[in-house]
Amino acid sequence: MEEKIKELRAQIDEMTCKATRMEELKDIRFKFLSKSGSIPALMKQLGSVPKEERPAVGKLINEFKTWATELFDEQEKLFAQKALQLRYAAEAVDVTMPAKKHKAGHMHPVTLVRNELIDAFTGMGFTVFEGPEIEDDFHNFTALNVSADHPARDRQDTFYITDDILLRTQTSTGQIRAMETLKPPFKIVSPGRVFRCDDDGTHAPMFHQMEGMVIDKNLSLCDLQGLLDTLAKTVFDKDTKTRFRPSYFPFTEPSVEVDVTCCECHGKGCSLCKGTGWIEILGAGVMNRNVIKNCGLDPDEWTGLAFGTGLDRVAMLKYGVNNIHLLYDGDVRILDQFRK
Ligand code: PHE
């Protein structure tokens, strides 16, 4: 029996030495200590040992069993510690390492200009009123006093979907939609995308405008001057001056085009303003009586002012962008320069 114990002890020693994983260790423990294992088997053989030797042999077997149990316990503890150390090493965080830089996005230059204007005008009691991009002929032309043979209806300018449905060519559609929806008096700005069949360095088939309109009693061109002066000073700097030039729009009478002092040379004359010191930024006027009538309001009771500016054009002037396509090519190297 002693021989047998020695042999098993050697086996256990060798096997535990070789074990590299916890599962192996558990298998070895099972092989020797489980009910059907080698050590309980020794106990079963105790019956065949002569009676007088039995207590001593029994003691030996028990001591062997205790030795094996302690060995496995100890080894398992070591393995568990080692596994924990490995996990700690793998999960270690170097708190002194510099953090990864996450580049935050920012507003597009056209959005910056739009938001600045919305801020300025909502500060003066205007509300934002947005109309649909897909419009019908009535809202884009007829109601705006654009006669059937007006060149603005030419298919070269307008993207038609059907004879009657089109992509709006101007946010002036907002004037009509607002008068149909809101109860006068009111003041709105209507920013949005507009579409025209036009594509060169300063024109893109999709661009942005912002319409502004006021419906109230006894409005005149003088009231418009104050509003547009605020607009110019908001987008450019506080010293920017505005001037009105007579113009023509079917939906305003009188109509004006509004120039601001050149944002580059401040009026001295440079290549941007072609030496004139002035740059045109918007169209405006007192609303034509026909337009007010077309929307069901009495033009003897209500008067209106309207203006419309190209947000892309203003952004280009403000940020010195010389090609409108640079705004839409999606090149972050360009757009990143307008981080505010
Ligand atoms: N809708 C005109 C354009 O696109 C601009 C404008 C708006 C003119 C309002 C007068 C009044 O050119």
Can you walk through the features of this model?
By secondary structure, this protein is of the alpha+beta class. It has two domains: 89 residues; 230 residues, BirA Bifunctional Protein, domain 2 (2-Layer Sandwich). The chain contains eleven helices and nine strands. It has a seven-stranded mixed sheet, with helices on both faces. The chain is rod-shaped, with a radius of gyration of 43 Å. It binds phenylalanine (PHE). Phenylalanine binds next to β8 and β9.
Question: What features would you highlight for this structure?
Answer:
binds phenylalanine; 2 domains; rod-shaped; 11 helices; 9 strands; alpha+beta; 340 residues; 40% helix; seven-stranded mixed sheet; BirA Bifunctional Protein, domain 2
